[in-house]
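LOG
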Amino acid sequence: MRLPKFSVNAFCMAAASFFLILSGIFLIKIYLQTGEDWIVFSGIFYIVFVFIIVALLIAWLRYQLLLFSKTFCRLLDDMLNGEEVCFPVLEKEHLFDKMVYRLMRLYEVLSENRRSVAKEREDLQSLISDISHQVKTPIANLKMINATLLEQPVEEEKRIEFLKACGTQIDKLDFLMQAIIKTSRLEAGVISLKKQKQSIYGTLAGALGGILLNAERKGIQIQVDCPEDLEVFHDRKWTGEALFNLLDNAVKYTPDGGKIWIEVRDWEMYGRITITDNGKGIAKERQGTIFQRFYREEEVHETEGIGIGLYLAREIVMMQGGYIQVSSEVGKGASFSVFLPYR
């Protein structure tokens, strides 16, 4: 059974009619019992006075309700349209102020969510653009080599050379995909770093194992100064990945016959791992941008790499409560210091 719906105006009219009818019955009853006219007139005056006061009160309440609903609807419309919302100044602790305060909190949450979504969309577009830029060159090379092998007669020696070039481009694509997967998993929080107090010596040794062959090919000397008993809180696997990326960069940009120094020191609150080379160095104005994803300096585009190693290293170190500092001069090498907290 559905109840009939009444508007505020209809309810007020019904209440006023009921009040007048009840007042009239009351006055007639008094007149019949007393027979005094002045009592009836006094009653009428009192009833009219009360009726006017009640009518004014209802009119004032109705005005306040309309004003409240109009303001509230305007605020909601501005929020829905994504416009800048101008909230009224809250002065008193009444119902309207309480509702506006909660609406302000809702607006702040929605605005923060909107900014977060916009930033995520911008980051995603940037990532897609960077990936397409990085993938474009190796795919174009593979297409060219494949077309050459299919359409033209090629000597066996030249064919092997082309296949080796294909292998190089495939390795570059595979490295790119692996680096992107690692980065995205870290940023999405899929991977949780398991920090525990352990020797940094073993972590550094594991990272060094990945770059020794390339260092030997270029005749680069590596000097290590690391206390075997120094322990810091870190995730061995991912910290090793960060150190490997820094060491790999040092090997790439150090000339043949150069030298790399690795120094580990015990600071008051951090363990510091410093990797220094005597390579080409980094200009001061670029030292703030080298940690950006896929960033590479113009003059090193012929050197193998995709520009994600430093970005990944910084993300790994920061997720463990640490940070990386760089110090360099053009032509005098570069020095990267990794600071890992003891707690």
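LOG (cont.) second protein
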Amino acid sequence: MMSDGALSQDEIDALLAGVDSSSMSGLMGGAPTATMTAPAGGAAFDKGALEKFFASTTPALSSNLAALTGASVTLQGPQVDSQSRDSFLGQLPDMVTVITANYTSGFPGEHMFILPEDSARAIAALMTKEDDIQLDDMAMSVIGEVVSQMVGTQITAMTDKTGNKSIVAASPAAANVPKATAALPAGDFAVMSYNLDLGDGLTHQMWEILGAAPAADISNGLGGGSSAPAAMSQGMPGMGMQMPGMQMPNMGGTMDMGAMNMGGMMGGGMGMPNMGMPNLGPTNVQPVQFPNLMQPRLGAHEAGNIGLIMDVSMEMTVELGRTRKLIKEILGMGEGTIIELDKLAGEPVDILVNHKLIAKGEVVVIDENFGVRVTEIVSPMERINDMGYN
């Protein structure tokens, strides 16, 4: 149907919303194009490319979460959108758990997960097998470990899809805070909304946030966009600039610069006559990328095999402190001798499994017995270093 030249209401709404004219091609009868979002003050990212990639990782994430929690866990989504701080905060409850896991290389920039307080408590309860759990430091450490496994799975898939072998994320840090204090990226950013089923009959929400820069870099790496230099080189093949009247010595005569097509410089050759040198063709120079030395993460299969050793007993000890003494001092000890340890009064005691440090705690008295309340879980990287795998 031919248009009478008047704009439809859909076209007017699109123009008022600041939509680029290329995205209106479907309204004007042209071919549809990919949806590119340009955040305020940031690079454009392809919502479709991000949504397709992160959706492809949800089955593996679901399996990992099920193995970690021992529950039937299903992650669905995500739906990707570009939002500002104010618009996103309007969707959140008053208290949220923010887990920051910024990308430090590969696609560097802001990266975090946000959970409603109730959802974070439900995940921590599944991990610790406690019903009435508080979102204290121990719970935050447990949730950080869950996100660490999720990020590891995503990075593995992202490396395979983009070929970028230098992708690294910082160790996740979790905190339960009022939503107004959440350190969200500046300007507009990519929001990926998931639905999380923890097997409790409730649908929990989870949001994954990417700053504008990493969102654009990742979507370009996935093939969702093209860089400006590549677009320019493909869009200007041979400008046909002529430089008449210029003469250059040419061995046995002169070379007319008017015969040189300067557009060849943009299209792959200068158009100069062959003076006996072989034509080697264009040289493709690329930077060398070395993989980072990272500890391997457990996949879904390996994490599931831990169930085979759940009934193996291990020695757990609590260490108040240590000291070193000469043999003559040890032989001279008797009843009433006071031994000074290397820990200060009130300092946390060490909790060891098979003589390897796994946590810290404080001494408590339960009826007439001593006990230890866990106050800190040692990070996986510290545990690996302590085991001598560095």
